[in-house]
Amino acid sequence: MKHIFFSFFLLIAAGAVYASSLEEKPAVIPVSKVMTHDPVLAKQGDTYYLFATGHGISVMSSKDLQNWKFEKPVFDKAPQWAVETVKGYNGHTWAPDIIFHNGVYHLFYSCSAFGKNTSAIGHATNPTLDPSSPDFKWTDHGKVIQSVPNRDMWNAIDPNIIIDENGTPWMDFGSFWDGIKMVKLTPDMNGVAQPEEWYSLSRRPRTFNLDEKDAGDGAVEAPFIMKHGDYYYLFVSFDYCCKGLKSNYKVMVGRSKTVTGPYLDKDGKAMDKGGGSLVIQGNKDYAGIGHNAAYHLDGKDYFISHAYSVAEEGAPKLIIREMTWTPDGWPIVNF
């Protein structure tokens, strides 16, 4: 769940240097001292922009993926449509996604209350990410989808956008309940395309006799799809975030030659039947790691996520790693 009650942590920006790497191994970017949750990334010109959970959606910028500068949040006040739609939402906005498409930056974001699927996903656009540009302005387009308790066995949070080989936009999303869903969007991405096309991408077993309003115990969320070679790769987070030192988040993956799946793991098990191959998990220094994104930038593939620092009592830290691939096409992330 996206229970992000860690606002008592101070956000500390600090730089680091690339560690020396062994020959033929990817460079390791040291864990940032920046605290963040649910990070996603975009690059414009020579600047990287990071968007993350926070009041109004947190924004940072960097020239080197190491030294981060805090920018103004996307929203200076909570979108009125979201306040009216989602009871309990007060502007603390979760799990954004950013994508550049048709000459515009599209930002998707989650409005919800912890432990409930009284949730909605919104959409905003900007012609530039450079706050010094005269063209810089976020335009909010309102609600894309909404989940309603006792109507929907899915949760409208954790959006991710993937454009398929035909240029069609799809949104994958979801957390707990009946798992990860996908829906086809209109060309402007402001709503669901007609006739509607919905798919289930990833599920975990759920105790059948739980109330439908209960999030349940099928702990999967935070989908992110990346195209690599002939395959679409679906990354998801299993188990639990947001519990400090008790967090046991881990990232799993499957792949498909079609964007709508089925996504199969290394053993050939479909992710919508409980499958998923481990990419990365916590260790002695980090209690859990998850809610990742993956990008091809500057000729390299990058894995970005947050992890809960044991040394800092579970504070969520920004993790960026270069991602490599096995000869048979599975992602490798050293941690």
Summarize this entry quickly.
The protein is mainly β and 335 residues long. Helices cover 2% and strands 41% of the residues. The radius of gyration is 18 Å and the shape is globular.
Give the key terms.
single chain; mainly beta; four-stranded antiparallel beta sheet; 41% strand
Write up this protein.
It is built from 1 helix and 21 strands. The protein is mainly β. The strands form 5 sheets. A 5-stranded antiparallel sheet has the order 3-6-7-8-9. A 4-stranded antiparallel sheet has the order 1-2-4-5, with no helix packed on it. A hairpin with a 2-residue loop joins β1 (about 40-45) and β2. The two termini are about 25 Å apart. Mean pLDDT is about 90; it is low at about 1-25.
Q: Can you lay out the helices and strands and say which pair or pack?
A:
Elements: E1 40-44, E2 47-52, E3 54-55, E4 58-62, E5 69-70, H1 80-85, E6 92-101, E7 104-111, E8 119-126, E9 139-147, E10 160-163, E11 169-173, E12 180-184, E13 198-202, E14 220-228, E15 231-238, E16 250-256, E17 277-281, E18 286-297, E19 300-309, E20 315-325, E21 331-332
Antiparallel strand pairs: 1-2, 2-4, 3-6, 4-5, 6-7, 7-8, 8-9, 10-11, 11-12, 12-13, 14-15, 15-16, 16-17, 18-19, 19-20, 20-21
Straight-line N-to-C gap: 23 Å
What is the makeup of the main sheet? 5 strands, antiparallel
SS elements, strand count:
21
What is the string of helix and strand elements? EEEEEHEEEEEEEEEEEEEEEE
Which regions contain 5 or more consecutive residues with pLDDT less than 50? 1-24
Helicity, as a percent range = under 10%
Number of distinct helices: 1
Give the overall silhouette. globular
Structural class by helix and strand composition: mainly beta
* Beta content: 35-45%
- Indicate the radius of gyration in whole angstroms: 18 Å
Q: Note the quaternary state here.
A: single chain
Overall average residue pLDDT: 91
Give the neighbour order of strands across the main sheet.
3-6-7-8-9
